[in-house]
Design brief:
The protein is of the alpha+beta class. The protein contains 13 helices and 13 strands.
């Protein structure tokens, strides 16, 4: 903490006129409190000012070099000089106004300021065009016997110096807290979807209101996450065209493609952009089946309505009874094999031929109520040759 405090700079906040800009000054080992009247050193010489904030620390980057010092706390003599200068300023303002009318100059006098040491008087005025005020300066110098300066300012500077209330009912922002004027354009009013009526978006000074700049960044962020006008989008109820945007609530109004009379409101997260912005001649047509949101909803409904029975193939149907009647599988499988062999002209071996009826016996016995039939004699069995035995004897 001590290292951070060493890197900071001690300053005091001084204001020359009520409502004007606040400047940093070096206290120069003088303790100043808010509300104190002080004499400070400026480029124009010593000036009379009011302390807005006492001694405090700021970052060096916030200080504009060179940092001029506070000369002293204002004394009674300094207070008297300040009061005399205020009377001189009022007199100079009245005299200058009469001279402007006398010379018929197209200019409006705003204020007159007298230097603390009385070395010069500075007049501020506004004008639409360039004004030749050389004769006016000569007459004013002859009246006050001091140096005369005339400075042309803008209408915004005039509002800041004069002060007043805005259309919101509060004091002007330029008097309250704005240090410098920031550029404001009509594009900001369009971005914020405001009325382009000059009387509604202009301030007392006749220029666009400074408060249009405050929310510009927020509106730009909202626009990035919202579709453009006349964009073609898909919604849960079907496809349509965006006809209105609500940036603050992040919602859009969509005119349906199939029913143009219907305009529905949806959130930005409920739609899918199929075409950004207005259609161009070079754009390709959007396919009718391109509906990422409404299309999925229709498919889900159709799937809920359809209840299809499970499909069974022929091979599966044959496999079911075979699994239930396991003992009959070998007999059923052996018969087609025998038929194939007979067709091809092959003779079955004796062992296989004898095994087939043995395997069929249990199955037939179970079918007929466990009453097996007597075995038939195999006709293919070779009989002994009686003639061969006689010859041997």
């Amino acid at each position: 903490m001590e290292e951070q405090n060493k890197s900071k700079v001690q300053v005091v906040d001084i204001q020359f006129r009520p409502g004007q800009k606040v400047y940093y000054f070096d206290p120069a080992n003088i303790v100043c409190n808010a509300g104190d009247h002080v004499i400070i050193d400026t480029a124009r010489g010593p000036e009379y000012g009011i302390c807005v904030a006492g001694n405090h620390m700021v970052q060096p980057s916030e200080v504009v070099a060179p940092l001029r010092p506070v000369l002293r706390i204002a004394t009674e003599q300094d207070e008297k000089i300040a009061q005399e200068n205020q009377k001189k300023e009022q007199q100079a303002f009245a005299v200058c106004t009469e001279k402007i009318k006398e010379f018929e100059l197209d200019m409006q006098l705003v204020s007159a300021e007298c230097a603390f040491d009385g070395s010069k008087i500075l007049f501020f005025f506004t004008a639409d065009e360039r004004v030749d005020f050389r004769e006016l300066v000569k007459h004013l110098a002859g009246v006050f016997h001091t140096r005369i300066e005339l400075r042309q300012i803008g209408v915004r500077d005039k509002a800041k110096m004069v002060g007043g209330l805005g259309i919101c009912g509060r004091p002007f922002c330029c008097i309250s807290f704005l240090d410098d004027f920031q550029p404001v354009s009509i594009k900001m009013a369009k971005t914020q979807n405001l009325s382009l009526n000059p009387t509604k978006i202009s301030g007392t000074c006749g220029r666009l209101m400074c408060c249009l700049k405050y929310e510009q960044e927020a509106y730009e962020d909202l626009i990035r996450s919202s579709p453009k006008l006349e964009s073609f989008v898909d919604t849960p109820d079907g496809r349509g065209t965006v006809v209105e945007l609500d940036l603050l609530h992040q919602r859009v109004k969509v005119r349906m493609e199939r029913n143009p009379e219907i305009i529905a409101s949806y959130g930005n997260t409920q739609i899918a952009i199929l075409r950004s912005g207005k259609a161009k001649k070079t754009d390709e047509p959007i396919p009718d089946d391109l509906a990422p949101i409404s299309g999925t909803a229709k498919r889900e409904k159709n799937e809920e309505q359809l209840h299809l029975a499970p499909i069974r193939f022929r091979s599966e149907e044959e496999a079911v009874p075979q699994t239930q009647e396991a003992p009959e599988q070998p007999a059923a499988e052996s018969q087609p094999r025998h038929n194939r062999n007979r067709r091809r002209g092959h003779k079955l071996p004796v062992q296989k031929q004898e095994q087939a009826p043995q395997q069929q016996k249990p199955a037939q016995a179970q079918a007929e109520g466990d009453q097996p039939k007597p075995l038939r004699r195999n006709r293919n069995r070779r009989r002994p040759n009686k003639n061969a035995n006689k010859t041997q004897e």
